[in-house]
Amino acid sequence: MKPVLAADREQALRRAIECSRVELGEALEDLKRAALERTQLGHYADRHPWRFLLVGFLVGVWLGVRGRS
């Protein structure tokens, strides 16, 4: 009877490992998605809108001054 218990335990361990692999894969995909979202420019514009407005204004003034010359 011991070989049957060992086989059942082995199958249970294999299922647990497979579940862990699936969960790890899902967690890795979530991490990739979160990293990509943080590297997009819109993320920073949402967090610091005044900086982007100020930079846009200054670039506009600079381009306007250059156009007159």
How many domain units? Answer: 1
Structural class by sheet pairing and helices: mainly alpha
SS field, number of helical segments: 3
N/C terminus separation: 94 Å
- Radius of gyration computed on alpha carbons: 28 Å
Shape: rod-shaped
Query: Strand percentage, roughly?
Result: under 5%
Mean pLDDT: 86
Q: Into which percent range does the helicity of residues fall?
A: over 70%
Order of helices and strands, N to C? HHH
Q: Report the sheet with the most strands, covering strand number, pairing sense and barrel closure.
A: none
Outline the low-pLDDT stretches.
none
Strand segment tally: 0
Describe the protein's architecture and organization.
With 69 residues, the chain is mostly helical. The chain has one domain (2-68). It is built from 3 helices and no strands. It has helices at residues 2-39, 41-47, 49-68. α2 packs across α3. The longest helix is centred in the N-terminal third of the chain and has 38 residues, at 2-39. The termini are far apart. The mean pLDDT is 86.
Brief descriptors of the model:
69 residues, mainly alpha, 3 helices
Summarize the structure.
With 69 residues, this protein is mainly alpha-helical. It has one domain (2-68). The chain contains 3 helices and no strands.
